[in-house]
Each structure stands twice: as C-alpha cells, then as structure tokens.
Amino acid sequence: xxxxxxxxxxxxxxxxxxxxxxxxxxxxxxxxxxxxxxxxxxxxxxxxxxxxxxxxxxxxxxxxxxxxxxxxxxxxxxxxxxxxxxxxxxxxxxxxxxxxxxxxxxxxxxxxxxxxxxxxxxxxxxxxxxxxxxxxxxxxxxxxxxxxxxxxxxxxxxxxxxxxxxxxxxxxxxxxxxxxxxxxxxxxxxxxxxxxxxxxxxxxxxxxxxxxxxxxxxxxxxxxxxxxxxxxxxxxxxxxxxxxxxxxxxxxxxxxxxxxxxxxxxxxxxxxxxxxxxxxxxxxxxxxxxxxxxxxxxxxxxxxxxxxxxxxxxxxxxxxxxxxxxxxxxxxxxxxxxxxxxxxxxxxxxxxxxxxxxxxxxxxxxxxxxxxxxxxxxxxxxxxxxxxxxxxxxxxxxxxxxxxxxxxxxxxxxxxxxxxxxxxxxxxxxxxxxxxxxxxxxxxxxxxxxxxxxxxxxxxxxxxxxxxxxxxxxxxxxxx
Length: 480
What we know:
It is built from 19 helices and two strands. By secondary structure, the chain is mostly helical. InterPro entries: Cat_transpt, TrkH.
C-alpha cells in the first residue's frame, strides 16, 4: 500500500527548498527597487505554509519507500513544485495562470519554450527566477536520473545503475553522499561558465543567468534575441558548456575523485561526442558551400545550433529553418536524439540509439547463423532481456505520446507543422519548434490555452521519461 505520510514529508522538504529559492529573486527585486518584491514574498509565504503542513502531517512516519511510492513521489514532486513555483508569475502584471504554469513547467523541465517577450526590459527578479527554475530542474533531473530511474528500470536506464541507485535504508547514506557530490560539481561548473561568459563581454547579471540556463541545458535568456544579442566569444562559451551539460555529470564527479580522464572512455560519451562533431562539421560545410559564409563563422553557427538542439537547450542564435531543406531535416532529427544519460538534457538519449544498433547488428548475425547464441553487450555489459523490454516500451510510448499530443494540438486549431514540431519539442524538452509561430524566431504566447496546458503535460512526460508517469495510469498500480 502507498505510504502517504512519508510522501507528504518529502514533498514538504521540496517545497521548503522552493521557499528558500524564492527569496533570491525577492532580494533582487528589493535591490533594484522593483514592484515584484511583494509577489515573491507572498509566494514564499504560501509555499512555506504548504511545506510546513506537509512536513507536520508526515513527521515521525519513517522514510520507508517502496517502488510504488517512488513512482508516485517522482511525478508528484515535479507537478506540485511547478504549481507553487508559478505563483510569482501570476502575481506579475499581465501574466495569467495558464501562461505562468506553462513558463514554470518549461523552466523546471529545462525545456526552454517561452510565452514571454520584452525580456530586455523585464524586471531582474523575474529573469533570475526563470533562470533559477531551470538551474533547479537541471540538478533535480540529474539526481533522479542517477539515483531513481535506474532503480525503477525506466526506459532501459538500469544499465546505469550504480551502488547509489538503491533506495533501501542500507544505501541511503551513499545516495545522499552521491547527491552532494553531484551538487558540488554542478555548482562548480556553473561558476566556471559564469566566469567564461563574463569574460566574453556579458555583464555580471547576464552572465549568471546564462550560466544557470546553459549548464542546465534550459535555454532561457535575458534577451528576446537570445544568444544573438551577445559576442561570438559568448557563442563558443555557450557551445562548450552546453556540451558539458549534455555529458553525464557523474563522470565529472568520478574524474575529480579519481583524478583521471580514463572515466571518459565510455561508449555513450564517445558516441555522443563523435556524433556532435560529425553533424556540426557536416552542417558547417553545407553553410560554407551553399550560403557562402566564412568557414569559421559557418563552424560557429553550425556547432552552436547543433549542440543547442541535440542537448535540448534550445538557445536561439540564427533561424536555422532558413538554411534549407537539408538543415530542416537534420534539426528535426536532432530534436529526437538528446545527449547522454545522467545529463541535464532531454530527448531519447544517445545510449538508446546505440543499444538499438547493437541489437540490430546481433539480429542480422542471427539471420546468417540461426543456431548461434549471441550475447548483446553495451559498454562491456550484457544487455539483459528486461532492459530490452524497457527500452522498446519507452520508445513506443515516446512515439505514441508525440502522436497523441500532435492530434490534440491540431484539434485546437494549430497548423500541422506547429502541432507536430510543438509536440516533439515539448516531449523532447528542446524548446523551439519549427515554423513561423514556435520556430527559433517565435514563441508560444499566441497558442490557445488548451494547447499550452497540453504542451506543459508533454514537457512533464518527457522530463520524467514517460514510463514514470504512464505507470500511474495502470489500474494495478492502485490495487493494494
């Protein structure tokens, strides 16, 4: 049976954390003399009261969670935190709750789709709150991907299960220790990104905002022009740290602990880096030959946009949909790919494509040698049957959700391109879609409210790897 009291207690902890983070933009509002001081103070008070209630109801219950509890807690945490985190936007002039929730869910899932415009003149407190949402969502997903999803065997992620991926009482201290190390490395990389941005010409406020949204692969900016408002050096900084955000953060932890780069000798990491280099160089050649762009500029534009989409960051630099048919097809495919497991990015993830390739190769061998016995391996580990089943289920559900979401969006009156790419960009957590409305040069403000709620649900499903939420709708989940 479900343990409601410990669930309430843990939700209270998350809401308490949110309460503290709300004080940060409140301090910015106070410093800059902005009217949003009251919005953040009221929101913090409401979230804090809800946190106190949850923790009081769940106190002395003992944190003994089973698998069903973990599935429910994971989904509830992201949903309830988003509901409360939207409050400062609703108290900000001109933002209704639909837009506020959409902006918040997009931020906390590090999707980066936005309904806001006029960012260049917007209150500092609102801008920093958007960036903080993405930064919190990034580290939250990393911890979940390392410690929770492998334990739940979501989408084949048991391959990445470590000794810290067990939620029993025996290993809880190990999980906490790993979470602490991940957080420290995440903060360190954010600080390095801030310094690099500041040295590239950004002021300190722009640098701290973009550092948080770059490493979290979220893509929120302080300008309507996004990264096009900044120097070429800033573009290279963005490319570098978006790439870092697309790599497994646990690898950085191991590299620091072992003081060795050998930990990067990983099939997923090597495959991801080779893929990015190949696609970036190919598109750079395409730009140089078809658009007569300077080779270095072509490489900068191609690399930035490829890394931005494949890591599901979604920063805007140029309207790559104007690069021609080849580029449009390439970026549509990149929306699906994603980067590495244990990173801040969304998408299908590169390891699933690699495992599918291994299985396909072994299946072809089986055709030539019907009586042969082959053991599929990935990263020197045998791919077990439960991992294959989980992976196939994930991909089928992934496609089904995109199709169903596309149909819902079409029924709201949107055109097919906006509907299809909007569904893709929501579920893959990329940010911009294709077309004139939600493409790199547009935003989601003109979409109907029903479409915004549907896309927000798609973002949550994509961020939680779909299976984590889908299992809640199976009747057997609620049977005692």
